[in-house]
Design brief:
By secondary structure, the protein is of the alpha/beta class. It has helices at 2-12, 19-26, 33-48, 90-102, 119-135, 152-159, 175-178, 184-196, 213-226, 252-265, 277-280, 285-288, 308-317, 332-335, and strands at 51-61, 107-112, 140-144, 163-165, 200-202, 205-207, 230-235, 270-273, 294-296, 321-322. Strands 1, 2, 3, 4, 5, 6, 7, 8, 9 and 10 form a 10-stranded parallel beta sheet that branches. Helix 6 (152-159) links the parallel strand 3 (140-144) and strand 4. The longest helix is centred in the N-terminal third of the chain and has 17 residues, at 119-135. The protein is globular. The N and C termini lie far apart (41 Å).
Length: 383
């Protein structure tokens, strides 16, 4: 396909595809799917070889969030039967992180529910970051605490944080359909704050919320403009008890096309398969490793992932290798600074399409396993 040859050439040059080209990737048929994966895989291997970076989530504070994000099991008014607990102590969080690091993770992602941290919360998280770093030499720590106020990103950086995650989630034009308690602009502002403080920015999306192909392209192009080092691609987990519980719009094939489009638009960024891969990619997960160079090991915030051992076996069986603690994730032109290379001196900072080949699947709530182990419980974590 001329389209795929063009996209590979652009990806190797870090050149942005056109919107039409990105939309065309999402519109390819199932018959062409392996060609799409092979083409995007060339771009992935050019920048990241066959390495897979492992990340591990520690949910510092679960549930009881005042925000109304429709996709979230921790939202205001959620009836999802999830774990609810207040802040873990630094030693508890460090112990939870150790399990993931022992399983091969090189980055620990510290997440807390809520609109954004108070200054006291930043102190808590700073103490946790220091505890983890003192006990685990060379570990990367990413914080995800919601919307940041002035000066908070700098304080996290001083405490030893390497990165900050804050996802855009969906297109600006449809953002108000999923959240009303804050704005898309608020999210962009927090990514800018992370960049300005010298933190490596991590910002991605959630697919499967009823968005159109145009919405997906809009949010990925917006991410390209923000230029985060890491782009997590989440696939909606339709938790019972949330407004989007009936949104089962994804097939494994559509998930692969979304990952391929993201790789073509963000060729040299760390594309991470995040929440929902077990639910929607299922047995097609190994193919997704040809598109993304990063995954979460084990469980997520409020849902359980596949066994950590199974993740490691999947990586090896697919012909990939776990990225070592001493290896640099990002290409050389990005690895020199906290937020990578920003071209041109720029500041850092809903019907489902039916053209995709595969029809949306029947709901599979049996695949959604609420987390009952690890942080906030007395049971061993999955890593």
């Amino acid at each position: 396909m001329n389209l795929l040859n063009t996209l590979v050439d652009k990806g190797l040059r870090r050149e942005t595809p056109t919107r039409g080209e990105a939309l065309a990737v999402l519109a390819t048929s199932d018959d062409d799917l392996l060609d799409v994966v092979a083409a995007a895989g060339k771009v992935r291997r050019h920048w990241f070889g066959r390495r897979v970076k492992l990340n591990y989530l520690v949910n510092l504070k679960s549930g009881l969030c005042p925000e109304d994000c429709s996709y979230c099991s921790q939202r205001l008014g959620s009836k999802a039967d999830i774990l609810k607990y207040t802040w873990l102590k630094p030693d508890q969080a460090s112990q939870a992180a150790a399990a993931g690091l022992a399983g091969g993770a090189k980055r620990v992602c510290l997440v807390a529910s809520g609109r954004g941290p108070t200054d006291r919360d930043v102190d808590r998280v700073s103490d946790t970051i220091k505890a983890i770093k003192e006990q685990n030499e060379g570990v990367e720590v990413c914080a995800c605490l919601g919307l940041l106020s002035d000066g908070q990103a700098e304080r996290l950086r001083e405490a030893g944080a390497d990165a900050y995650n804050h996802n855009l989630n969906t297109s600006e034009s449809t953002y108000g359909d999923i959240t009303t308690t804050h704005t898309y602009a608020d999210r962009v502002d927090t990514v800018h704050k992370a960049h300005a403080a010298g933190l490596s920015a991590c910002s991605g999306l959630i697919a499967g919320m009823g968005e159109s192909d145009e919405d997906l392209v809009d949010v990925v192009f917006a991410l390209r403009e923000l230029d985060p080092d890491s782009v997590p691609v989440n696939f909606l987990i339709p938790f019972e008890g949330t407004p989007l519980a009936e949104e089962w719009n994804l097939t494994p094939q559509r998930c692969l096309r979304i990952l391929a489009m993201t790789r073509f638009v963000c060729p040299d960024a760390e594309v991470r398969i995040a929440g929902g891969r077990e639910v929607h990619l299922r047995t097609m997960q190994p193919l997704a490793l040809h598109l993304a160079n990063s995954i979460f090991l084990g469980d997520y915030l409020t849902s359980e992932g596949q066994a950590g051992k199974a993740d490691l076996e999947m990586i090896a069986d697919a012909g990939f290798e776990v990225e070592g603690a001493g290896e640099v994730t990002l290409p050389e032109h990005r690895a020199g600074g906290g937020c990578g290379s920003h071209e041109g001196g720029k500041a850092c900072g809903s019907a489902v399409s039916e053209s995709c080949g595969s029809a949306a699947e029947e709901p599979r709530p049996d695949l959604v396993a609420v987390r009952r182990r690890g942080a906030g419980t007395d049971l061993a974590p999955n890593a």
